[in-house]
């Protein structure tokens, strides 16, 4: 039992976790041509909770057909909670010297953790950035007809051209943000 806890509390290398995630694609296809993704659950939740007095046509569909996806989302949330609390690695994350130097260059007062308090504290500016970023991600997810996991895992594995475009856009936007936007946000925080 102790060996199992050591395995669960330790970071898994890419060559173990990557194939495990990749194996979800054939598993989901075998159990009913389902797509590995999470973003459509927000649409399902809106369809479930839509008041009868509002009746938005977009949310008028039989969400029960996709209840497996809601169970999957619940499992992801429970798994994340367990991994972050019950099976959390007790050792602090070891950041590279380059990451520490980058945080110092950004003017962070304590660049010793993965979550610098200047970025992850709940201030008005940080809250506005989170809200604005969430709106952009939500719009992008809807516009691209799926999220990163849906396109990058299922879409690319099933050779969907639209998923290739989506993944190229996602990673291009991430690189653009990391090098041209994030370093300048420090002045706002």
User: Whole-number radius of gyration?
Assistant: 20 Å
Count of strand segments: 0
Largest beta-sheet details: none
The stretches of 5 or more residues where confidence is low (pLDDT under 50) are none
The topology string of helices and strands comes to HHHHHHHHHH
Q: What oligomerization state is this entry in?
A: single chain
Which term fits the overall shape?
globular
Total domains, how many? 2
Name the beta content range.
under 5%
Class inferred from helices and paired strands: mainly alpha
Specify the number of helices: 10
Mean pLDDT, nearest integer? 81
Helix content: 55-70%
Span of the ends, CA to CA: 45 Å
Question: What does the model show?
Answer:
With 189 residues, this protein is mainly α. It folds into 2 domains: 91 residues, no CATH class; 68 residues, no CATH class. The chain has 10 helices and no strands. Helix 4 crosses helix 5. It is globular and about 50 Å long. It starts with a helix and ends with a helix.
